[in-house]
Amino acid sequence: MSKLNLQSLKKNFKYEVDYLLSKFKLSQAVVFIITLLCLVVTGLGDTTSFFNSNNSFIPKDWTWFNSKKFVNLLAACIILIPSILTWLNEFKRQSQEYSEISELVVENVIPRIQNELIIFKENLKTKFNISDNIRLSVFVPIRYSLCNWKLQMVCKTSNIPDKELIAAFALNEGVLGYTFFKTRKQHIEFIDVSNNNNLPSKYVPLNQDNFNLINRDIKAVLVVSAFQNGSVAGLLAIDTENLLDLSKMEDYKLHSDALDWIIARSKAVKWIWRIKNNV
Question: Residues 198-208: what's their mean pLDDT?
Answer without folding.
Answer: 89
